[in-house]
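[agent] plan:
  1. take the single chain provided in the ticket
  2. run structure prediction with default settings
  3. attach structure tokens to the ticket
  4. add a short note for the reviewer (M.T.)
[agent] executing step 1
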Amino acid sequence: MAKCDEGYLCEVCGKDVANLTESDMYLRYIVGMLDPEVLHTTPERHIRCNPELAQYIIADDFEPVFREGPFDKRNLDPEFVRQQETLFTRGWHRLKEVAGKELPIIEYPLPEVIEKIKSGSPGIG
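[agent] step 2 finished; step 3 output follows
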């Protein structure tokens, strides 16, 4: 079966990542962690299956995720945590916003990420 016929399976739990709003890959793309050129080769995960990232989403409609161990945000520098919470929460809201629209993928990211992509600036990925 061709990969496009299989859907996008989470590399952690093996289940289908059925909705854009569940996609760790697209969230990372939206916040500038992935270059658009690698989306087709990047493994997919559910956001909740990546607790290192999910713990930074602070939103009423996102059940909190706690990451035990050395990457638990409660053990990290508070300023770094604040920056990550701001970024990933903005990314989460943007992910929900684009899920309901017919936009080209290049328009999914946050505005500052789109500018970096257009300018060819390093820092994406």
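[agent] step 4 note for reviewer: The chain is about 35% helix and 0% strand.
[agent] ticket updated
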